[in-house]
Amino acid sequence: MLRRATAAAGRLRDLGVAPGDRVAVLLPNCWQYAVGYVGIQLSGAVAVLVNTRLTGPELDHVLTDSGAKVILTDALDGPLGARVPAAVAERVVPAGVLVPRTDTGAAETDPGALPGLRSRPADVAHLLYTSRTTGRPKGSMHTRANLLANARTVRERLGAGPAERTLIAAPMFPATGVVSHLHRVLHRRRMLCVHPGVQGGDRSRTDGA
Question: Of 33, 59, 65, 189, which is most buried, counting CB atoms within 10 Å of its CB?
């Protein structure tokens, strides 16, 4: 995880992403989501967790309102990438480019030199957009201190055994997936299995990271 996330952070830096810049994540549940998210944090950027069910004006609003400099998604012709508005399509970076299956490039980036490791507790870690019950979706800022406190609380409530494995079947983009589960697993350095969702009658597929 650290090798791949470090390489992703280095690639974001090469793309011109600086600390505080927004990087949108428009991906289904997959191991690239988890690694890409950690890479964004290591780069010092702010992850924008995009609802994969958004289309048209709602997706356009989130991507433009957040000021995302990079949009991490499947591909411009993929199921999700094809929904990205043409006005911001040049910002798309396919997941296979930012987070390839090989570790190529990991050794070229020193984790200790990454700005995310020098972030402060009050720095914003990611943006979550509301579900638009009234008006347009609004970005909610979660700081690093928020996420750490939540990870500790969930860990205390659910426990964390030495051989624990966590299956995340909930979507990653809302608070449940990333805030309650991913951060708890990362905080305790446990194994994570990300379920892509039920595909027809298949209820057993997982994609481990």
Answer: 33
pLDDT band of 160, cuts 50, 70, 90: low
The most confident of 74-78, 92-96, 201-205, by mean pLDDT = 92-96
Own/partner long-range contacts of 50-58 (Cβ < 8 Å, ≥24 apart): 50/24, 50/25, 50/26, 50/129, 50/173, 51/129, 51/131, 51/137, 51/173, 51/174, 52/26, 52/27, 52/28, 52/80, 52/171, 52/173, 54/83, 55/83, 56/83, 58/132, 58/136, 58/137
Q: How many degrees, rounded to 5, is the angle at CA 185 between CA 167 and CA 117?
A: 140
Dihedral-angle region of residue 130 (phi above 0 means left; psi in -120 to 50 means alpha; beta otherwise): beta
Q: Kindly state the DSSP code that residue 199 receives in the 8-state scheme.
A: B
Nearest in space to 100 (alpha carbons), one of 137, 72, 65: 72
Question: pTM here?
Answer: 0.83
Say whether pLDDT at 110 is over 90. no
Residue 40, helix vs strand vs coil: helix
Least Cα distance to 105 among 7, 37, 9, 14 occurs for 7
Burial of 203 (0-12, 13-18, 19+ CB in 10 A): exposed
Side-chain half-sphere exposure of 144, counting CA atoms within 13 A: 17
d(CA 30, CA 197) in angstroms, rounded, equals: 10
- Whether the predicted pLDDT of 86 surpasses 90: yes
| Contact between 17 and 45 (Cβ < 8 Å) | yes
